[in-house]
Amino acid sequence: MRVLIKGAGVAGLTSAHELVARGAEVMVSDPSPGFASAASWYAGGMLAPWCERESAEEAVLTRGIGAADWWEAVLPAGSVHRNGTLVVAPPRDAAELKRFASRTSGFRWIGAEEIGALEPALAGRFRQALFFAEEAHLDPRLALSTLRQGLEAQGVVFSGGPIDEGRFDLTIDCTGAAQIGDIEGLRGVRGEMLYLQTEEVALSRPVRLLHPRIPLYIVPRSGGLFMCGATMIESDDAGPMTARSLMEILNGAYTLHPAFAEARLVETGTGVRPAYADNLPRVSRHESTITVNGLYRHGFLLSPALAEEVAALALGQPCGRPLPNPPPQGGGAKQPLRSPAIFDHRARCKGRDRGGGNAAEEAPPPCGEGLGRGEIRRVWRGMRKGFSERKCPMKFTINGEEHELPATTVADLLLLLEYEGEWLATAVNGELVHGADRARHRLSESDRIEILSPMQGG
Ligand SMILES: Cc1cc2nc3c(=O)[nH]c(=O)nc-3n(C[C@H](O)[C@H](O)[C@H](O)COP(=O)(O)OP(=O)(O)OC[C@H]3O[C@@H](n4cnc5c(N)ncnc54)[C@H](O)[C@@H]3O)c2cc1C
């Protein structure tokens, strides 16, 4: 079978790898030289299914657990670092650590002594941390380059020019954010990051620094390099990093360790994460095109599982994994077909199974329980419009009234409550939150929120 893969980001290259391994004749097209326009190039490379569960669905954990094994089998020895993730918070943000712990699993609490033993550079800086021992990380740039070289060595041709798609039996579209506007519901989540270089700090694993508004992670690379990231902004603008984001990330790095103040700032960059409203990826087939998209902040974590799914769908082979959903029935020829092994949308909330196959997608999510019917519908409509991360509800006091809503940021909250328009003022716990800050102002349990909007016709 001759297969054209469009897009040489992590989705395209992992799919190519799985297809070549099953005997397909593969060509990869990408108009961009190098990887600079791929979101994959800017990734942290964290294979962190347990940490990601803080804001992601159960499927991200269950499908991401095997990622480190897959990458280890494909990349040269030593490329995948399986030494865990450390999650810390300054004493004033200790509540954040508890909140993170309450939403995740697969960690143990550790004290100052063990923090110092794991990361001597952080000795004496934090009293408590969560240690996710099973998590791993890799260098995404090395991984992408190695995958590409391996494919070329097996005869895969990479092309940047126009291609006659008619020559191929099948096209796999892995063009990520380039499909925003063409695929209904696909949106961009802008992620700004930077690289610092210093010999003054040594870390051996990703460290996440929690903060109610501006969480940060730092992933060590070789050569004294540290990838620091990343913003989560509801936008498909891939333009240069803003001064505000730069200052916030640098502030975070400085809080983690003051020696980062003397580090060289060697690169800033922006990637646009392609995401659907539920922040879960999709593999779908329409005639002779398979589309893989919506990898959101989990491209390296989930692409191994997705690539296996793509290869099975392309070649009509079993995926080798349990099929959580029955294949859709009676889809006409024009109807895009969801692959049977697609992520289980019934698992939207921890430990729940509403059943009902596709119907569950249209139903209000179980996390909305506890709200009135009208509110559930409103919340669900807000979710379908797409807000940054879906959560189980937290309690807030909004304009003096108690509410329980699954909002992560002030922007989420406005979306859920269907506030629209420019003429709004928002404050959290008595502090004004400007319009430009709402998408990144993270909310905590029991926050007091004031929303002022003009009276209609007043
Ligand atoms: C700052 C940041 C940090 C991240 N950290 C992590 C992390 O730690 N762990 C993790 O798992 N994920 C992480 N992610 C998420 C991950 O990077 C994305 O999920 C992933 O890159 C999406 O991969 P993709 O292949 O779908 O898209 P992309 O990587 O964007 O690749 C799409 C490719 O398609 C090409 N293309 C566009 N149009 C065409 C066309 N018409 N024909 C052919 N080719 C075309 C583009 O040039 C591009 O190369 C992070 C993302 C960002 C931005």
From TrEMBL:
The keyword Cell division does not apply. It comes from the Bacteria. It catalyses: a D-alpha-amino acid + O2 + H2O = a 2-oxocarboxylate + H2O2 + NH4(+). Its cofactor is FAD. InterPro entries: Beta-grasp_dom_sf, DAO, FAD-dep_OxRdtase, FAD/NAD-bd_sf, Gly_oxidase_ThiO, Mopterin_synth/thiamin_S_b, Thi_S, ThiS/MoaD-like. GO terms for molecular function: D-amino-acid oxidase activity; FAD binding. The keyword Ubl conjugation does not apply. It is an enzyme of class 1 (oxidoreductase). Residues 320-339, 348-370 are annotated as: Disordered. Its EC number is 1.4.3.3. Pfam families: DAO, ThiS. Residues 2-313 form the FAD dependent oxidoreductase domain. Coiled coil: none annotated. Pathway: Cofactor biosynthesis; thiamine diphosphate biosynthesis. Keywords: FAD, Flavoprotein, Oxidoreductase, Plasmid, Thiamine biosynthesis. GO terms for biological process: D-amino acid metabolic process; thiamine biosynthetic process; thiamine diphosphate biosynthetic process. Belongs to the DAMOX/DASOX family. This is D-amino-acid oxidase. It comes from Sinorhizobium fredii (strain NBRC 101917 / NGR234).
